[in-house]
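Protein Record: Sequence and Backbone Structure Tokens
======================================================

Structure line: whole-number tokens from a learned vocabulary of local backbone shapes, matched to residues.

Purpose: to set a sequence beside its fold so the mapping can be learned.

___
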Amino acid sequence: MDSNFENELIAYCGVDCSECGDHKSGKCPGCRKTEWKEGEECMPSACCRGKGILFCGECGEFPCADMEEFYRESDSHRLAGARMKLLKSRGRETKLNIAFLQILPGSGLSDRLALGMEACREAKRMGADIALFPEMWSTGYFIPQDRDALEAASLGRDSMFIKCFASLARELEMAIGITYLEAYGAFSRNSLALFDMRGERALDYAKVHTCDFGEERVLARGNDFPVCELETAKGPVKVGAMICYDREFPESARLLMLKGAELILVPNACPIVTGRNYKLIKIAV
């Protein structure tokens, strides 16, 4: 196998051996076990070494079918797979413009439909590839506690309100993430519908970590963190979603990462209260 690679060389574990000085010590900075001579490729695993597997950290190409199969089958090395994908995209990075629609809700569903559609049109005029609404835009994050009122405020997945944003995404050739109080059987959920630039439904997500200590105690929870390939004007991108409180739990992002998400959309309606603002200031300092 030809090992005349240029620039840096990378191990299957995702360790770039020439980005730090540890390669000079003859041990992989990731596993600290496998030894190699300076100038040679790092192979930090017995399974890699046994197969004589090397691959280029510049182009990210697999040198053989065995290596590619190893990546696909090994759950414990998905991080490395994500890094490989990043390396493959070097030199052709795409900048996505995402519009976070910071708008106040009107007095009813028809107001929010009109306000939302105009905000999307403005986002498109400003060059957005994706427009994302605040959490539960259909109600302005108002959650009725009475069962009958909650049912009346909930919308079906294929309601006219949702279909209008699908049509708008197709018209503007811009992906749109619309949030709403979803009718889900006998229950209601805090949900997001994501439409691609052709108006096709790409992803549906319901908030998993509901705020049971507040108004959301009357809502049903979602049970998954799906990932989709979203078509945008800049090309496809793997997208997942969380909603507000989901972001407080590291497992949410971890699951999305393991499923290959390159972008995580996080609508929320969380106010910056004094205590929270103080914490953010401390982090920034």
In short: Residues 21-88 form one domain.
